[in-house]
């Protein structure tokens, strides 16, 4: 089994089967460079790749991504909705993407953006963050808008099993500021999310397993990330207009924890495996030289 872990059964109810997520992520990023590629099988991309917009086309697309990227790129982020839209056949493909990417050494961040009342959150934690579940990934995205505390079952399941979470803090979409920049007493909502994550990550070495999502397109940071001690997933560069220079300017001394994420900008290089891999490596090298990451 690879260092990114697997969906294998745990030895006991409490023993983690793998190293803590922050340590695993740090190791893979130091080996492969700071890049997350999103596996987002948009219908338009399927067409562009000469594939049908059906479960067979999805499978071809997704497994080509795995073949091209899973043994080179640090983190792969399948977006669940693009698989769900094909029903059970799509979920079977998603299960394969998770398992085969992990076998090739990539960390799999399943983008499901979950957030629910505590008791239901426990069911999501069982589905995505618990050994033995066919959809268990190395990490998932979470939405904190039912209150950060409602995420507790997912945070506990992740910690217990060496998995991670990435909580939406400042998202890349234009509608985000009306909620995320709103004030909650003296702090913005986004800052309360940062502070809650920082509290959970305090003292964990090399970094904690509670990451945040901060889009490359947000303009100005407006939050203090100094105490976060966790990874920052940064989508929105490329297809959404964010640039590597935006990332460098935004994150300053938190730059070493930044994991830029790109989907369409890399995926449009397909369908040839070699071209797709080359585009991912070119993107990674551009990130390294723009951020001085390694
Ligand atoms: O959580 C995410 O991944 C995410 C958060 C965010 O603020 N903005 C954002 O674009 N994303 C996701 O990142 C991917 C961006 O895709 P591209 O714009 O094609 O690079 C999509 O899967 C989005 O759902």
TrEMBL record:
Active site: 113 (proton donor)
InterPro entries for the chain: Aldolase_TIM (IPR013785), OMPdecase_AS (IPR018089), OMPdecase_type-2 (IPR011995), OMPdeCOase_dom (IPR001754), RibuloseP-bd_barrel (IPR011060)
Keywords for the protein's UniProt record, in alphabetical order: Decarboxylase, Lyase, Pyrimidine biosynthesis
Positions of the Orotidine 5'-phosphate decarboxylase domain: 34-279
One Pfam family linked to the record: OMPdecase
Signal peptide: none
EC number: 4.1.1.23
PANTHER family: OROTIDINE 5'-PHOSPHATE DECARBOXYLASE
Protein family per UniProt: Belongs to the OMP decarboxylase family. Type 2 subfamily.
Protein's name according to its UniProt entry: Orotidine 5'-phosphate decarboxylase
Gene name tied to this protein: pyrF
């Amino acid at each position: 089994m690879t260092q990114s872990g697997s969906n294998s059964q745990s030895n006991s109810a409490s023993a983690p089967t793998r190293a803590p997520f922050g340590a695993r992520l740090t190791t893979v990023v130091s080996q492969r460079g700071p890049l997350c590629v999103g596996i987002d099988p948009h219908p338009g991309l399927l067409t562009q790749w000469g594939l049908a917009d059906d479960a067979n086309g999805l499978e071809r697309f997704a497994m080509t991504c795995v073949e091209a990227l899973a043994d080179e790129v640090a983190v792969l982020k399948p977006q669940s909705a693009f698989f769900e839209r094909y029903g059970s056949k799509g979920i079977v493909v998603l299960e394969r993407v998770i398992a085969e990417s992990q076998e090739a050494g990539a960390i799999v961040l399943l983008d499901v953006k979950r957030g629910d009342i505590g008791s239901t959150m426990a069911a999501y934690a069982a589905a995505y963050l618990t050994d033995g579940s066919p959809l268990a990934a190395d990490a998932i995205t979470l939405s904190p808008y039912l209150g950060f505390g409602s995420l507790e079952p997912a945070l506990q399941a992740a910690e217990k099993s060496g998995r991670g979470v990435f909580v939406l803090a400042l998202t890349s979409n234009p509608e985000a500021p009306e909620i995320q920049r709103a004030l909650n007493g003296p702090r913005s909502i986004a800052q309360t999310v940062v502070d809650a994550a920082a509290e959970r990550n305090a003292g964990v070495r090399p970094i904690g397993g509670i990451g945040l999502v901060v889009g490359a397109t947000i303009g100005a940071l407006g939050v203090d990330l100094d105490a976060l001690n966790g990874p920052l997933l940064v989508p929105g560069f490329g297809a959404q207009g964010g640039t590597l220079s935006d990332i460098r300017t935004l994150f300053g001394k938190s730059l070493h924890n930044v994991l830029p994420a790109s989907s369409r900008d890399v995926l449009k290089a397909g369908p040839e495996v070699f071209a797709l891999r080359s585009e991912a490596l070119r993107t990674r090298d551009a990130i390294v030289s723009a951020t001085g990451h390694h």
